Amino acid sequence: MIELTDQYKTRDKIDFRDATFGAVAEVMKNDIESVLLTNDMGALGIDKIAEFAPERVINVGITEQNMMSTAAGLAMTGRTVFVHGIISHIIFRSLEQIKLDLCVQKLPVIIIGVGTGLTYGQDGPTHHGLEDIGAIKSLPNMTILNPSDAYSADYAVKQAYKNKSPCYIRMDKALLPHLYDSNSNLSENIISHGEPKGGSIITSGVTVWSALFAQSLLCKKNINCNVIDILQIKPLNFSKLNSLIDHSEWIYIIEESTHNGGFSSDICYSLRNKSFKFFEIVNFKDQYLLGSAEREWAWKKYKIDGKSVADDVLSLNSR
Amino acid sequence: MEDRQIPTNISNESREIRKIVLETALNAKKGHVPSAFSWVEIAVVLYFKGILKFDAKNPQMEDRDRFILSKGHGCLTLYAVLSKLGFFSRELLDDFGGKGAVLPGHPDTEIPGVETCTGSLGHGLGVGAGFAMSAKLKKMKWRTYVVLGDAECHEGSIWEAAMFAGHQKLNSLVAIVDKNKLGATDFTENYASVKNLAERFRSFGWDVVECDGHDESKLFELLSAHKSQKSDKPFCIIADTIKGKGVNFMQNSKEWHTKLPKDDEIAKAFDCIKNNND
Hints:
heterodimer; A: 319 residues; alpha/beta; Rossmann fold; seven-stranded mixed sheet; five-stranded mixed sheet; 14 strands; globular; B: 278 residues; five-stranded parallel sheet; 10 helices
């Protein structure tokens, strides 16, 4: 269970998948050429799309390599193609197809991967999504979107559709309240929460909720910071990021990934000419998590939960 | 070395393509010549005998047939054919593999007439299945032709695509396996047999025929007949070919995958091509 601050505890919780496939359904209703491929991975939202477009929802079976190549062929004939499956399978089994068939040719294929980070933590390392950002961000022409709530998931699908080039949307399965709404400005692909003073906690995806929890605890200790949610990991809006940390005396990065499997190196690059009181990164280090890495347990163990982050910031700040 | 001969009459077009392939490779000092030679007749029938629908001046014509050379390392034949047909000028061949040249050692999509990047094996049939699936959804008449290597059929992705195409009844998809029986370093029979490819494709829901891959008349007959066929299955031709076909000392040998003739071998090679001395 992801910890929520009091402000969000009582709000309705929404399934990322419903929001994501709701947006896909909107696109596919309007664009009758668009197609959705899945590697035998179901979702309620996919069933709903199949009701109005049965011939455009194609279960290719557990054939991830072929799914990407077939998506490329479909896209080369002028279609936008959505591809869906579990992150750890569709990214790594078919990485070469993503590179050569999709990215080199800059095709409008939108990969919707379910299972960010430790969504499937209890299912073992075969199902963890801890290295995929590192792999995918190395591919030119690829956009990576990592929404932190249902509203930004909806936005991500529509943004990816507009891009008309390869996009990877990382989709969680957590039930979480809306963090954003129609009044939120997501257009710069980075969103700041809180006043820009003190320090900055930078994160992406569902660990935004850890950061917000840490922020609320720190606030009670009179430590100010803003939380920066990186909605689009690649290309990263470096100028916006720099403007949001312009005030910052310290930086704390939270990523639900291995050390080289996430986005922190891009933040380091972006901020390479600045100096801070402290600059800390927490993640799962350079290792595989064997056994049943239940998310709440693992976040606490590796100190990427809100309480641990707040404690660490307090400690670093007092030195 | 396998002791076999396939009797064929080499056409003028095939002779000309082999000559251009060898000239291009020698000029660049690079290229997979035997792999290019083994599918020359297949290319000639597809492009010069009216099987493929295309417009060299409008390579992106919507209702064109799609062609994918999945065994991308055999691209010198494709380049020679596309150049002869006017997709691009002969001068580009002279710069094959050069610094910043348009034509690299494996095809990419900046080359007029090339549909997709190939060279890493096992991609072409899946992409072709995507083309064919799109044609089926759109009820378009165009067809997709994919040339595979037999050693390429070691790739699992080929069989993922074969299963998908068979299940989806993609009957506008044609796979032609250039069965030259050699991988990069050895005969496939010595390390991973692909002897029963026809049975394998058939079991995945394809119509399959086997023929001499250097017999232009037979290839033409099969491919023409397929255009008017009523089967709902994808179609596969297992084309029995000889790697290095056309130059006797390069034929059916595991020595020549990337090796080029030198010194007096060069004249002998051109002589073989000119006089059908294979």
